[in-house]
Amino acid sequence: MTHGSRVKVPALARVEGEGGLEIVTEDGKVTEARLDIYEPPRFFEAMLRGRRYTEPPDITARICGICPIAYQMSACQAIEDACGVTVSNQVRQLRRLIYCGEWIESHALHIYLLHAPDFLGYESGIALAKTHPDLVQRGLRIKKAGNLLMTVIGGRSVHPVNIKVGGFYRAPAVAELGALAPELEWARQAAEETVRWVAAFDFPDFDHPYEFVSLRHPSEYPITQGRIVSTSGLDITPATYDEHFTEFQVPHSTALHSVLDGIRTYLTGPMARYSLNHDRLPPDIAGLARAVGLETTCTNPFRSIIVRAVELLYACDEALRLIAAYQSPAPPAADVPARQATGYGATEAPRGLLYHRYRIRADGTIEDAKIVPPTSQNQRAIEADLRDFAAPRLHLSQHQLTHECEQAVRSYDPCISCATHFLDLTVSHR
Amino acid sequence: MSTSTRLVIGVGNHDRGDDAVGLAVAERIRAAAPLGVEIIMLDGDQLGLLDAWANAAEVYVIDAVCSGSPPGTVFRFDAARPLPARFSHRGTHTFSLADVVELARALGTLPPHLTGYGIEGHRFDMGDPLSPETSKAVEIVAERLLRELNSADPGRWLTCA
């Protein structure tokens, strides 16, 4: 017997992904919580087979309009790894800079227009804008600073066109990047205010013992490079990812699920990055995080908005550092001759670890490709959280339960267009 | 940010069937638009509309609609009035045209004259071409929009900027 009605969603089309949430109860207890992702499979991995080894950065950028740089960077690194090429430090720094732009854009959007309204009692960012236009304008201006970085380096902010295997088609002039510094200085200050603003929200008391997985770099807060580590002691290179992480199908989702070492549910994303790498933040930013009450680990998904704000501040700070040190790479890209080999790449998309693997033939065609986006990896952790979150709330009305479960899911900033819109809720009582 | 006061903005995704109708209309307008009208193609982040129309006095936006109406149905709205809820949708990241219009209204940044055209889509799968019904609607909307552009007195709008 099924109770509850479907909550209607889309009308004006922006077809990025479709999904729903189903909660099953038995004897008043939640027995299942399922993220039903029914976005049609997108077959990007199959589409890449037989294409030139130089094409994945442009093709995989189309997977997502919010985090194209992540796809481009993981793709480039995997192909360069296969071809045995190491790019210059200047190219590496320019990659990190454009990636900062994507973090700024993505985190500002999520904090101000998607997540903050939940804590302030507004149904949407639009409703928030009606009474607090200054706040929303601040968020949009921060986001725009990220867009500008992506446009100047990448040629445009959505699906950038200046990225290639080996580096960039054209390196921006020092003056072009220097011109962005004043706006990024403003954004840095605004991001600092953002950290203090969101830290004062009221958060539900809800912690979960996650196994966190993220990159870790010897000296940097991880964005573009690092070993893959976890809170349970995993410490591997991207080349051995497949030995530890297994993807598999589930009946209710067209996005694959993933487990660690055959059985363990894990979480990637800002909470994981911060908890595993807080010691890599500059002292002033780490100090501000502590001063606003963020401990060195965060296991309450609702408080992830504070972590995201800290990362937003870091991305602005890091972008300014990189611009101040920028030297235009010459040449803008390394020569990357094809060879028969398999290569691996892993970077930190705004929502978490993004893994690419390519097997390339001697003639430069792609024989096999594997892409594991963060939302796909996080599905099991989200479902596990929803089971615990929904259990004490089953007495709520369908409307209120849907609302609160949506808030819980938004905490993870899932990108259903990557893994695969939200949110239909069905509660089934057995 | 555009420097033109008259804009036609096509919104959509070339790779997803009928979601490309806005872009298809904008392409046809580009070939025949009167002087002084700027054509913008927007794929992806619709919040980019806020910047795209920041200095414009007269804006036309064309997008796909998924309301359950017959494929190829043409909708036209004047943003001077709040848009019906059925033209909006919720997503984890994406903002619909209606969302962006209402956000701009809340922020006080709505252009003085904003007209929207929506074309009901039918197929949105990856790699699909435009469906026959929406292809026909593209021609109808392009013709109607060109008539609007050619009949409008630009000076009337300029005084509103």
- Taken in chain order, the helices and strands of chain B follow as EHEHEEHEHH
> Which strand order spans the largest sheet of chain B, edge to edge or round the barrel?
2-1-3-5-4
How does the overall form of chain B come out from the CA principal axes? globular
- Strand ordering within the main sheet of chain A: 1-14-2-3
In whole angstroms, how far apart are the ends of chain A? Answer: 6 Å
Question: What fraction of residues of chain A sit in β-strands?
Answer: 15-25%
Main features:
heterodimer, A: 430 residues, alpha+beta, 4-stranded mixed sheet, 3-stranded antiparallel sheet, B: 161 residues, alpha/beta, 5-stranded mixed sheet, 5 helices, 20% strand
Task: Give a description of the structure.
- The complex is a heterodimer of chains A (about 425) and B (about 160).
- Chain A is built from 14 helices and 14 strands.
- With about 425 residues, chain A is an alpha+beta fold.
- In chain A, helix 8 (about 180-200) packs antiparallel against helix 12.
- A four-stranded mixed beta sheet of chain A has the order 1-14-2-3.
- Chain B is an alpha/beta fold and about 160 residues long.
- Chain B has a five-stranded mixed beta sheet with strand order 2-1-3-5-4.
- In chain B, strand 1 (about 5-10), helix 1 (about 20-30) and strand 2 (about 35-40) form a beta-alpha-beta unit.
- Chain B starts with 5 loop residues before the first strand and ends with a helix.
- Mean pLDDT of chain B is about 85; it is low at about 155-160.
- The interface between A and B is large, with 45 and 43 residues.
Element layout with pairings:
The complex is a heterodimer of chains A (430) and B (161).
Chain A: E1 2-3, E2 19-26, E3 29-37, H1 44-48, H2 56-60, H3 68-83, H4 89-120, H5 125-131, H6 133-154, E4 163-164, E5 167-168, H7 174-178, H8 181-199, E6 213-216, E7 227-230, E8 235-236, H9 241-244, E9 245-250, E10 253-260, H10 270-277, H11 283-291, H12 304-324, E11 341-349, E12 352-360, E13 366-372, H13 374-390, H14 398-410, E14 424-429
Parallel strand pairs in A: 2-14
Antiparallel strand pairs in A: 1-14, 2-3, 4-5, 6-7, 7-8, 9-10, 11-12, 12-13
Chain B: E1 6-11, H1 21-32, E2 37-42, H2 48-52, E3 58-65, E4 74-78, H3 97-107, E5 113-120, H4 132-151, H5 154-158
Parallel strand pairs in B: 1-2, 1-3, 3-5
Antiparallel strand pairs in B: 4-5
